[in-house]
Amino acid sequence: MKQGFRIFAVVLIIGLSIVSCKNEVKQNAGASSELEEKKPNIVYILTDQWRGSALGYAGNPDVKTPNLDAFAKEAINFTNAVSVLPVCTPHRASLLTGKFPTTTGMFLNDLYLPSEELCMAEIFKKAGYNTAYWGKWHLDGHGRSTFIPKERRQGFDYWKALECSHNYTKMPYYDNEDTNIKTWDEYSPFAIVKDANAYITEHANDEQPFLAFISIATPHYPHNSAPKKYKDLYPSESLTINANIPAKLEERCRKELQGYYAHATATDEAIGRVLKKLKELDLMDNTIVVFSSDHGEMMGAHGVKPFVKQLAWDEAIRVPFLVSYPSIGDNKGAVVNAPLTTPDVLPSLLGLTGIEIPEGVEGENLMELIQNPDPNADRVALVMNPAPFGANFKDEPYRAIRTKQYTYAITPNGPSMFYDNVADPLQQNNLLGKLEMEAMQKDLDAKLHEALQKIGDSIKPRAYYMDKWNYTFDEKKRAIDWWSHDKGEGVVQSPKQF
């Protein structure tokens, strides 16, 4: 009997233990579920024409960017991030869709991104996010000062934005559903950030996470409009002129660099205010923060005058990309040398937030590389320009790839660029046809064509793409005519024609 009682007692204890464990598992699962209910916020800070070399943390000896230098020590630094097509509208369309410009047809400035495209804010909104947008949009294609109604905002609800303006001292914008145009009351980076900080403060404790997209148009030209306080930091005669800038452009580049760096330093201060606010509100531990730019600018390099981009040299394509995320821990300040291209951003953000990546997204989810940064990792990042326009109209179309070490590009007439960016960071020694580099050139060419094959693309003349999408340039400016919209005479051009 005693033995039977002992067996009963053991069974009872085991049973109670199992029940207790199950209850504990349920409670832990419930706690875990509650913790996972609110996904991380996202603050995406997009600047305009800020090239990847024009930052203190990137080794620039002149420019002062103390806030971003500090943030680089708290984030993952993608040193070889590139713009998929280095000009505004194509980059932004690719950023929001996760697709390449030849897939969407968004390869020129001032096109309208069709509402049928599934975009970043729509995806995050469906996952329960509040969405907000400030600043330059440049995806509406209905002229640069026209009111953009809610149905054309691609899922962004809170809205203080304008299609495009570079008047930084009196920048116009539209306030949500108010069709009357307004003007920011101070230097636009500071004004935009002040409103963004108010939004972040208001929504800091919401049950829903937020996607706050802060689009600051500086340090894009005009450079002379930078506040004097910041221009005074940069006497033009003291500025470093790179060896790939010819002597005939040196004086002009010094003048432009003074204002360019002044805008950069002022914008760095504005970004610092956002980062400070996130820390004050104790949000950094549940917020993904990204700092980047839509493209760089040539600034005289290789004899190309200031303001010009669209080309495959690093001055135009390489952009800053810093990303911090919850539980970054020991990865703070880590460096990733493997390149990232614009379509990779959306799927990577979706990966970090645990949201399913929609079918049709062409970029790669780099979540693993972000969470396990490896400076020795490498990959191929695709860059393109199917139809150079405006100031670049006489340039050849190209496709290019960037690896952590090399740049390789082709045009319809054959290979055009081959640089070892480690040995030759100013890209002054084109390695095309060098016997000792023949095997590497062949390998890069194969990788480039493999990348094109993945997205159903190939290198063809500009006319092919203009005809395919039924686009027409203004005869004099060789660009999409956006200025006629101000006179009520504009024609919207879009991959989905009206």
From TrEMBL:
The keyword Hydrolase applies. InterPro entries: Alkaline_phosphatase_core_sf, Sulfatase, Sulfatase_N. It comes from the Bacteria. SUPFAM superfamilies: Alkaline phosphatase-like (SSF53649). Residues 40-355 form the Sulfatase N-terminal domain. Pfam families: Sulfatase (PF00884). Keywords: Hydrolase. The keyword Hydrolase applies. PANTHER family: ARYLSULFATASE FAMILY MEMBER, ENDO-4-O-SULFATASE. Belongs to the sulfatase family. This is Sulfatase. It comes from Tamlana crocina.
